[in-house]
């Protein structure tokens, strides 16, 4: 009996699809969301940096196929990316359409790869795949992170619930509702973040550093750290009541970030 991969351990037996079938389902689901927005004549927020001035010449299907071919992510990263997209949509009150899909998809997939995959590429490479400049990619990445409140962590059971229902054709917005209902059913309607549950965790671009914020039993009200010249993972522990955390890095786009933790 062969050992299961870490990825397969997350999946129910009937969900362990072939790679070809998996990507067909993911593509079909995403295209369904885009077509729904287009058919409903959804009006995009013209001020959003994720909204193109016009529908891109490369179709959404071809864009997904391009990402699969060149971004070379673990296949579960595509589901993580879909969860990130869902978080973005619910927190901003927007919907997918032909004008915002491309940028939201490539940014969420790159973040999923950086956060969950052991091997990923620099933003300069991802920008080439996306067909945009590195500066624009960096800006979109940061904008996306702030819109989802840097919520990159995904609970295992939430992933399982999302995976099972996403592969069965459930719409993204309905999936988020299922996850929220499950969380409150298990933890109560007024549930708060557990003491050891990370509030935020991000990979500092161009550095082999990870910032993880978790509630802790201290009276710290604010903290400033520098990741200059740090080559190993960095863990920062703070309290729920912390009012500000500033992270200074030598990365061009992440010079100073202030986290507000509630």
From TrEMBL:
GO molecular function term, any single one:
protein kinase binding
Identify the SUPFAM superfamilies for this entry. Answer: Cyclin-like
Any matching Pfam family: Cyclin
Q: What is the lineage of its organism?
A: Eukaryota, Metamonada, Preaxostyla, Oxymonadida, Streblomastigidae
What is the protein name stated in its UniProt record?
Putative Cyclin P/U
In terms of InterPro entries, this protein maps to: Cyclin-like_sf (IPR036915), Cyclin_PHO80-like (IPR013922)
């Amino acid at each position: 009996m062969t050992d299961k991969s870490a990825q397969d351990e997350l999946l129910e037996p009937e969900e362990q699809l072939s790679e070809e079938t998996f990507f067909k389902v993911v593509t079909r689901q995403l295209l369904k969301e885009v077509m729904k927005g287009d058919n409903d004549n959804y009006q995009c927020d013209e001020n959003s940096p994720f909204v193109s001035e016009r529908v891109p010449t490369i179709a959404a299907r071809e864009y997904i196929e391009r990402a699969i071919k060149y971004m070379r992510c673990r296949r579960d990263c595509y589901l993580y990316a879909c969860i990130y997209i869902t978080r973005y949509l619910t927190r901003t009150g927007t919907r997918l359409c032909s004008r915002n899909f491309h940028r939201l998809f490539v940014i969420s997939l790159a973040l999923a790869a950086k956060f969950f995959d052991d091997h990923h590429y620099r933003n300069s490479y991802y920008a080439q795949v996306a067909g945009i400049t590195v500066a624009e990619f960096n800006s979109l990445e940061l904008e996306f992170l702030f819109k989802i409140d840097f919520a990159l962590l995904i609970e295992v059971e939430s992933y399982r619930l999302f995976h099972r229902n996403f592969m069965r054709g459930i719409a993204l917005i309905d999936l988020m509702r299922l996850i929220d209902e499950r969380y409150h059913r298990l933890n109560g309607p007024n549930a708060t973040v557990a003491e050891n549950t990370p509030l935020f965790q991000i990979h500092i671009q161009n550095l082999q550093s990870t910032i993880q914020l978790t509630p802790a039993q201290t009276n710290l009200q604010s903290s400033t750290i520098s990741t200059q010249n740090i080559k190993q993972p960095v863990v920062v522990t703070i309290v729920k009541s912390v009012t500000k955390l500033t992270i200074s890095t030598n990365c061009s786009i992440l010079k100073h970030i202030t986290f507000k933790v509630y």
